[in-house]
Amino acid sequence: MIEVQHLTKRYGQHVALDAVSFSVGRGEVVGFLGPNGAGKSTTMRILTTFMAATSGTVRVGGDCVFENPMRVRKRLGYMPENNPLPPDLRVGDYLKFRARLKSLANGEGAKRVNVVIEQCGIADVAGRFIGQLSRGYRQRVGMADALLAKPELIVLDEPTAGLDPNQVRSVRKLIRGLAGEHTMLISSHILSEIEMSCDRAVILHQGRLLASGALDVLMAKTNTAVVSEVRAPLADVKAWGEKLALGQAECVEQPDGYVRCRFANATSADAREKIFGSVQERGWPLRELTRQVPSLEDLFVNLTRGKEDGK
């Protein structure tokens, strides 16, 4: 559905995007990740025909965004970050206006407005002025707008930015409900949100592509850790941790006399079994033995470590 090849964007001497390439298959829900300033919004503006690139190619559904921008626009629905909405229009009137701009016929436009109002859970505020709405509801109005023309591709730029936890959960539920019906590209610097909403990820950092692929495959490349808590002298536990040779052992004494030991690179499949057997041999009380599965945040930290200053 989306094919990006060697996409580059320069502002004078500043390189916002540096030969970025990735693809999104039809029907996929893909997270577009990176810290603020990584180049996510720039890529999305180019992808949605709102900005020209310095070089490279971008295709949506086989159409080049530079050669056939109007054909591309008919294929997608876009909600930009800090979506600009007119505060003095009522929600229903705004969506009817947007339906006309999208060339939806009167009967079809009215039907689609009713559908997206229900789909996005904004029926109870359809008669209110947009300026009176909370940020969470305004985000929903923006998503309703993006859905009006039944687009093949939905592009959402920071859809949960600035929302409170309840609003985030509500928007996340809406995104999950749309999955399967549309191809979706969702940008965020909140990694936990992408982890809960998407199956694949594209990760940018300082305008460069760091990784792209299925979340489970990407996170499998990040080492797991094993944590144990045993009751024994700290010095003995440290010596034991080094002897086990399961990776770097970080041992910290707890106030109640137990020592918490984290094996930071315990990649062996039998790491817990080996630790348990060794603790039993020593006769130490054991109250915790857990495997810490890496998160998307762990993956991102590992990928960007040492790159902040161009190292």
Automatic annotation (TrEMBL):
The ABC transporter domain, residue ranges: 2-231
Keyword ATP-binding among UniProt keywords: yes
Gene3D superfamilies: P-loop containing nucleotide triphosphate hydrolases (3.40.50.300)
Molecular-function GO terms, alphabetical: ATP binding; ATP hydrolysis activity
Cited Pfam families: ABC_tran (PF00005)
Keywords per UniProt: ATP-binding, Nucleotide-binding, Transport
Family: Belongs to the ABC transporter superfamily.
Name of the featured protein: ABC transporter domain-containing protein
Naturally occurring in which organism (per UniProt): marine metagenome
Taxonomic lineage of the native organism: unclassified sequences, metagenomes, ecological metagenomes
